[in-house]
Design brief:
Blueprint lengths: L17 E7 L2 E6 L2 E6 L6 E7 L5 E4 L3 E6 L2 E6 L6 E7 L4 E7 L2 E6 L5 E3 L6 E3 L3 E6 L7 E7 L4 E7 L2 E6 L3 E6 L7 E6 L4 E8 L2 E7 L3 E8 L7 E9 L1 E7 L4 E7 L5 E9 L5 E11 L4 E4 L2 E5 L2 E6 L7 E8 L5 E5 L2 E7 L2 E8 L7 E9 L4 E5 L2 E5 L5 E5 L7 E6 L5 E5 L5 E6 L4 E5 L4
Antiparallel strand pairs: 1-2, 2-3, 3-4, 5-6, 6-7, 7-8, 9-10, 10-13, 11-12, 13-14, 15-16, 16-17, 17-18, 19-20, 20-21, 21-22, 23-24, 24-25, 25-26, 27-28, 28-29, 29-30, 31-32, 32-33, 33-34, 35-36, 36-37, 37-38, 39-40, 40-41
Length: about 450
């Protein structure tokens, strides 16, 4: 009643903690991890009317008849005429949806890591300060139709540097090309939109292999880099699964791991890239759960899943799991350098492992160390290991003693560091979640 002195009337526990809330008339809709709660707020103390299970994300919106939910890789509509809303339709999205607003029969859905949607009261328009914006016609809430989409650069997931040109896998902006002739002044020169989300990059001679996430599958694209700043698409092929990771034999054989969306089962694909640049799948094997990275050592692959798996690919049509190593957490990234295999992963605390793979089928754990935040990408150069360390930027480890890698330096990045490349010299290239390519000159003594 007095806006200068608000008075608390009641307090109602909503464990687990809420991600978002929307109030419409006498009801409050509270979205939480794994559930949605509906409260009657007509009296002084809220009373719980209904609880719905499922992923209800961060952004509910309610009008007189319908509930709209932004959640994990999806946008959903519900009939809200009853206190317990009934699901009408689900539409998948490439990344988690963070927020939804409805205006004049259209739903505006914010995609990815961007800031919340902003309503312009003058024009009635919506914009997303970062990330992407998808627009649905919800004239029939049971059959929403996507009518527009706008991706804005906001999350560079991987980087690969060839000569004086850097390539960024941008989850919002497609494949981006950057001139790094002067590493202190990177210059964007080209951007290629993509039917999907460029997720992972891999250098294969004078070609670039790009893994594009199409929501339920992965498209592998091969580009010719003869003209580095104008890559030319040579061919593509489709893989089952998402969140692809690559390695190769350096010539024409590419190895890829993907996971299926619901069960987190890993698939390892053996891909041949012919002289014309056309990729084709030769064979695959399903080694287990929790897809991670892949590293190639001759005709032996190391795949990070629920454990370190060793796979024989001497017959590419019938790859075979020949050994299992130590148990690992999910989302491990790998890098191999000669007879040394490195892995990093984690949650609040990350771990770095070092294996001796001089006997390829019998990796021997040499040492390990811990550091804060998960490592999302790693690169080895000489006796130094560079780790893209999310919120903490980039960490550098001295590998002169493989039984006890020692952190010797770090530098911050503007956003979360996701991808890293150290192609030559002492320049480090980092892709971060703000859609930026950052460069740093490292002096290692």
């Amino acid at each position: 009643a007095d806006p200068t002195a608000p008075a608390l009337l009641s307090r109602t526990p909503t464990y687990p903690y809420p991600h978002g809330m929307y109030v419409h008339k006498a009801r409050a809709y509270v979205s939480q991890y794994g559930r949605l709660k509906v409260f009657d707020i007509g009296g002084e103390r809220p009373s719980e009317l209904a609880v719905l299970g499922g992923d209800f994300g961060r952004g509910p919106y309610v009008d007189d008849t319908n509930l709209y939910i932004a959640g994990s890789r999806g946008f959903r509509t519900y009939d809200a005429s009853d206190p317990s809303p009934t699901l009408l339709a689900t539409r998948p999205t490439p990344e988690d949806t963070k927020v939804v607003r409805v205006l004049n029969g259209f739903a505006y859905v914010g995609i990815g890591e961007g800031a919340p949607l902003i309503l312009n009261p003058t024009s009635g328009g919506m914009r997303s300060a970062e990330g992407g914006l998808w627009t649905y016609d919800v004239g029939d809430p049971a059959n929403p139709q996507r009518v527009a989409q706008t991706f804005t650069p906001g999350a560079s997931h991987d980087v690969a540097v060839v000569g004086r040109t850097a390539y960024l896998a941008d989850l919002g902006g497609g494949l981006r090309v950057v001139n790094v002739a002067d590493p202190a002044r990177p210059e964007a020169v080209e951007q290629f939109s993509s039917d999907g989300l460029p997720y992972t990059l891999h250098k294969l001679g004078d070609r670039l292999v790009v893994g594009v996430d199409t929501l339920s599958a992965t498209r592998v694209e091969v580009y010719d880099l003869a003209t580095p700043r104008a890559p030319r698409l040579l061919g593509s092929t489709m893989l089952d699964g998402i969140e692809v990771q690559f390695d190769s034999d350096g010539a024409r054989r590419v190895y890829a791991t993907t996971r299926d969306a619901p069960e987190y089962m890993t698939r390892v694909h053996i891909i041949d890239v012919d002289p014309a640049g056309i990729p084709s799948v030769l064979g695959y094997v399903d080694p287990g759960r929790y897809s991670g990275d892949v590293a190639a050592n001759g005709e032996t692959l190391y795949v990070a899943g629920e454990m370190l798996r060793v796979i024989d690919v001497s017959d590419p049509a019938t790859p075979e799991v020949v050994a299992n190593g130590i148990r690992l957490p999910s989302s491990v990234t790998l890098a191999i350098d000669g007879d040394r295999l490195f892995g990093t992963a984690g949650a609040s605390t990350s771990r770095l492992w070092v294996w001796d793979v001089s006997s390829p089928r019998e990796p021997v754990l040499l040492g390990e160390t811990e550091f804060e935040q998960p490592g999302t990408d790693i690169h080895v150069r000489d006796d130094f290991l560079f780790v893209a360390n999310g919120l903490y930027g980039v960490r550098v480890f001295d590998l002169s003693n493989l039984t006890a890698p020692t952190e010797i330096g770090w530098f911050p990045t503007v956003g979360h560091a996701w991808g890293i490349d150290v192609p030559d010299g002492n320049i480090v290239y980092v892709a971060d979640t703000y859609g930026m390519l950052q460069t740093a000159r490292m002096v290692c003594r």
